[in-house]
Backbone:
């Protein structure tokens, strides 16, 4: 049925009263009745999007017909996109600093073209949390936190200047300085309010962030997900997100987790299951009786890892647990009551007794079937039960590295010599797990039981503990667990992402030498969310994700090739073997200690009193000004004028005699494309810094230097584990220049190609661009002169980031790949296409081989909406924003 278009805009607002105050909201119930729809069949996450469409319709930003199609679940047929105005933006500093560099440059660009630079100003509340700057330079000592914080300020003072400028010169910017905690845990514990109130109008709290794990907030019932920094900039300036109506996969949870099984085991199981079910670009929504046994913090662990599923978000509908958590974390009673009233009036409160949504597909997971596990050695979805890890590690050594035997000698004393499987890094890290008191208290209790049995950790294991907020250390201290963690070497090293983001710091040079000389396959174990190749440490090739108590257990054993169910962790002072099950804490112990140690007052003290802010941060001078005062000598912050291009008015593009810069396989991550960790001494980025007078000890990381495009372009495709198929069995950021055949860095090759006006192509396999939503993976690709990336499939965020940087993502046709087409990357490529028809055309390509053969094939532009097509035609989002600001079209 198709409704007749009304002659005037329909009013879908309604009102509610709370404590004598009248509030207006956009009513889903009124829309449901008007369109004769049944919202009980609509997933909760889509209902929130429908609420956003009601507001967009009132502003006449979408048509009545488009609104009708979305509400009637026929949005797939709509030519209009869903319009989503997030109420907040959250940003971490690795993306926040380059984002502010872009805004500062955008202001200058607007002013130089006769516009008003102050129109480049956030209109949406934006919180920047400095959580990526700190590294594990020092560990295993009581003063590790102080020493690491000192180094953090020494290295990053230039970066912090632009944060101070933004805090005083831009509106709606709030900075959480170094030492505050991790962005997503702060978002969960403090920033999210479930509702936003503006002039007595109520809307659901919603958020997008410049980190893919922004999805963690879905656990509260707040809809949000990660986008690239360049996409976040447009939202900050008042532009909505526009995208096709997403498909929603329902995950029905039943049963309860068993003894010795925790939420980390569950989320690794879900990651494996959902990856196999291909939920890329989908919303995932959880329901079922299993929800009753999961606390909100446990749900947060699950929501946090939606990017590892491949999903856009992992949503838990709002229920009583959402409001219980708000109360536990010190939110005001009036806010909680008003939010509960709003969500119940809207039909957004989870009612399992009246639950019948229609999902794209439904997956059932029984919590009783979840077993204790880890994931690795380099992908989060590669789950291994702990009783099978020893066997799997031996298989890895044999299959990947050709190593057929391993020293399995068991000693009662500490090992003094490394071998395959030795654990070099053991880190309790990442908001994925440190936001969950159950696993944190479990880790503390296990440490306590281990110390009482006389166990210790081998001295070659670098241990670290980096909580996601100071509340964690507060309650562990209250529970008297800190001394035991310290005794084992898990002293607090800092409040930030640290090892999880690749900032694991240096290893002992003697150990690195031993690893290199003996080609050892050593390991790390961490409670993070990513274990991609080259991410944790360049010398460690096998990395495993695990729960915090398992991190402690494996650290004690000192090796990854152990069966924790049958082999002892070590031996006590009497030479008696100590097994994991003997020191594993019971659920009753954990719950009792949580009840005794955690209160709303801990959260109120840390957040309401700004107890997270240090005097050192307050002492940094504030520089207020319409334009940012660039320091020409800075090696951290450079004005990125190359991002702003002069675009001609042609309607087509022709690529003649193009070359392949890199020929890549499956699962190439944004860590491969734009590494965030240490800058290798032999890299092009290091050469640049040395020429600028920077000593190697002050190189810092790629992530910290994302405000300098000169460093970042040299680091693009610079991961030490990248495998470019143009080369034979070589790793690193190298390529073969065609036609000379000379092997050189990808940066140097791109420079030569650029001087010869040769357009460049990247070719890849499946899941290209998975991983963190770092915009520099797209920015660097663009600056290298790459015009097109052709892959079998793309991860959502990187695909859109490429478009926003003026690089065309295109997919091979189903069943085809560069391998099946017999392409080897040495060919010359020719193609042309129209900017105006990328939504409905294939692009025909001719590849000319050196022997005269021609391979012809077609690819499909991976552009989903008319808005993306227009953005690409404009040469990217930054160019488009300048045009709109100068034409007074932006809503800022």
Residues:
């Amino acid at each position: 049925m198709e409704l007749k278009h009304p002659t005037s805009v329909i009013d879908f607002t309604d009102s509610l009263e709370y404590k004598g105050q009248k509030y207006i909201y956009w009513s889903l119930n009124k829309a449901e009745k008007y369109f004769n729809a049944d919202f009980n069949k609509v997933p909760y996450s889509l209902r929130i999007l429908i609420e956003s469409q009601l507001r967009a319709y009132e502003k006449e930003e979408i048509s009545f017909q488009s609104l009708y199609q979305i509400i009637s679940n026929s949005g797939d047929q709509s030519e209009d996109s869903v319009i989503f105005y997030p109420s907040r933006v959250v940003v971490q500093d690795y993306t926040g600093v380059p984002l502010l560099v872009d805004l500062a440059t955008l202001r200058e660009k607007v002013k130089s073209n006769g516009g008003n630079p102050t129109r480049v100003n956030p209109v949406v509340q934006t919180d920047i949390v400095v959580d990526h700057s700190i590294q594990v330079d020092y560990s295993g000592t009581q003063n590790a936190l102080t020493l690491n914080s000192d180094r953090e300020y020494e290295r990053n003072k230039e970066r912090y200047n632009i944060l101070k400028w933004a805090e005083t010169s831009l509106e709606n910017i709030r900075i959480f300085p170094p030492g505050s905690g991790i962005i997503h845990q702060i978002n969960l514990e403090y920033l999210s309010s479930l509702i936003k109130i503006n002039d007595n109008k109520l809307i659901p709290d919603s958020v997008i962030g410049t980190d893919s794990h922004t999805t963690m907030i879905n656990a509260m019932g707040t809809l949000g997900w990660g986008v690239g920094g360049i996409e976040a900039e447009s939202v900050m300036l008042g532009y909505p997100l526009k995208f096709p109506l997403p498909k929603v996969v329902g995950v029905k949870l039943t049963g309860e987790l068993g003894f010795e099984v925790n939420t980390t085991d569950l989320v690794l199981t879900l990651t494996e299951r959902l990856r196999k079910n291909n939920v890329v670009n989908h919303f995932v929504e959880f329901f079922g009786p299993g929800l009753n046994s999961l606390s909100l913090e446990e749900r947060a662990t699950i929501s946090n890892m939606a990017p590892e599923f491949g999903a856009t978000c992992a949503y838990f509908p709002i229920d009583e647990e959402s409001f219980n958590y708000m109360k536990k974390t010190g939110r005001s009673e009036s806010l909680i009551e008003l939010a509960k009233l709003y969500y119940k009036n809207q039909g957004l409160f989870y009612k399992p007794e009246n639950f019948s949504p229609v999902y794209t597909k439904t997956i059932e997971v029984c919590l009783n079937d979840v077993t204790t596990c880890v994931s690795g050695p380099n992908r989060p979805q590669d789950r291994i039960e702990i009783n099978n890890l020893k066997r799997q590690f031996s298989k890895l050594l044999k299959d990947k590295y050709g190593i057929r035997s391993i020293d399995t000698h068991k000693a009662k004393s500490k090992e003094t010599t490394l071998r395959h499987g030795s654990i070099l890094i053991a880190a309790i890290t990442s908001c994925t797990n440190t936001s969950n008191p159950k696993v944190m208290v479990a880790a503390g209790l296990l440490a306590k039981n281990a110390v009482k049995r006389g166990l210790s950790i081998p001295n070659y294991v670098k241990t670290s503990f980096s909580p996601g907020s100071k509340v964690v250390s507060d309650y562990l201290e209250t529970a008297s667990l800190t001394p035991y963690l310290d005794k084992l070497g898990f002293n607090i090293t800092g409040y930030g992402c640290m090892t999880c983001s690749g900032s694991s710091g240096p290893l002992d040079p003697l150990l690195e030498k031993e690893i290199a000389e003996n080609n050892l396959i050593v390991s790390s174990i961490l409670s993070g969310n990513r274990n991609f190749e080259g991410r944790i440490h360049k010398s460690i090739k096998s990395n495993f994700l695990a729960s915090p108590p398992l991190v402690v257990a494996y650290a004690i054993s000192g090796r990854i090739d152990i069966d924790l169910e049958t082999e002892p962790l070590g031996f006590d002072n009497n030479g008696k073997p100590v097994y994991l099950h003997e020191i594993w804490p019971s659920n009753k112990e954990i719950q009792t200690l949580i009840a005794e140690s955690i209160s709303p007052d801990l959260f109120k003290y840390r957040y309401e009193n700004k107890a997270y802010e240090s005097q050192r941060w307050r002492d940094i001078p504030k520089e207020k000004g319409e334009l940012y005062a660039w320091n020409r000598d800075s090696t951290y912050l450079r004005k990125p004028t190359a991002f702003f291009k002069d675009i001609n008015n042609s309607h087509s593009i022709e690529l003649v005699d193009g070359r392949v810069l890199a020929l890549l396989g499956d699962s190439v991550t944004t860590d491969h494309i734009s590494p965030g960790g240490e800058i290798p001494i032999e890299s092009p980025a290091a050469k640049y810094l040395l020429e600028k007078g920077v000593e190697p000890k002050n190189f810092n990381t790629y992530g910290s230097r994302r405000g300098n495009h000169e460093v970042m372009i040299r680091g693009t495709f610079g991961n030490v584990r990248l495998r470019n198929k143009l080369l034979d069995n070589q790793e690193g950021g190298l390529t073969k220049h065609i036609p000379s055949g000379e092997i050189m860095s990808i940066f140097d090759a791109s420079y030569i190609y650029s001087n010869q006006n040769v357009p460049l192509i990247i070719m890849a396999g499946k899941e290209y661009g998975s991983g963190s939503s770092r915009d520099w993976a797209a920015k660097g690709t663009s600056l290298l002169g790459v015009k097109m990336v052709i892959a079998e499939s793309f991860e959502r965020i990187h695909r859109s980031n490429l478009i926003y940087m003026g690089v065309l993502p295109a997919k091979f046709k189903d069943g085809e790949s560069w391998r099946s087409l017999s392409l080897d990357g040495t060919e010359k490529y020719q193609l042309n296409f129209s900017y105006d028809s990328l939504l409905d055309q294939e692009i025909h390509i001719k590849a000319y081989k050196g022997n005269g053969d021609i391979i012809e094939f077609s690819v499909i532009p991976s552009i989903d909406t008319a808005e993306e097509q227009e953005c690409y035609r404009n040469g990217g989002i930054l160019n488009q924003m300048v045009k709109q600001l100068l034409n007074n079209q932006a809503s800022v």
About this structure: Residues 74-78, 408-415 have pLDDT under 50 and may be disordered.
